[in-house]
Amino acid sequence: MSVKLNALNSDSYIDVSQYRDQHFKGNRYDQEKLLKQSHTLYVGNLSFYTTEEQVHELFSKSGDVKRIIIGLDKVKKTACGFCFVEYPFKYEA
């Protein structure tokens, strides 16, 4: 599995989605440049019972995980099925 996720670090593998944030302040070129430099991965369709430890265990197999942000329901404060996994920035030599 780590081989598949490590492929995401390659510039040749990056294919930016057609989805665009309508609130982005800047032009399309700037937005795509920032998306390609991003080290944050959106993970959706999670079980509401998925824990931060489970996400960390899975995604740390592909490298160091800087932090995990689990989406919470604003009223109940319970997990709502998505998270963000952030990897630290590493310079390529």
Element layout with pairings:
Elements: H1 2-6, H2 28-37, E1 40-43, H3 52-59, E2 67-72, E3 79-86
Antiparallel strand pairs: 1-3, 2-3
In short:
With 93 residues, this protein is an alpha+beta fold. Helix content is 25%, strand content 19%.
The biggest beta sheet is recorded as: 3 strands, antiparallel
* Beta-strand percent range: 15-25%
How many β-strand stretches?
3
Residue runs with pLDDT of under 50 for 5 or more positions = none
Distance between the termini: 24 Å
The backbone outline, from C-alpha atoms, is: globular
* Helix content estimate: 10-25%
Mean pLDDT: 83
Question: What is the helix/strand order?
Answer: HHEHEE
Structure annotation, total helices: 3
Provide key terms for this protein.
3 strands; 3 helices; globular; 93 residues
Report on the structure:
With 93 residues, this protein is of the alpha+beta class. The protein contains three helices and three strands; from the N terminus they run ααβαββ. The chain has helices at residues 2-6, 28-37, 52-59; strands at 40-43, 67-72, 79-86. Strands 1-3-2 form a three-stranded antiparallel beta sheet, with helices on one face. Strand 2 (67-72) and strand 3 (79-86) form a beta hairpin. The longest helix has 10 residues, at 28-37. It starts with a helix and ends in a 7-residue tail after the last strand.
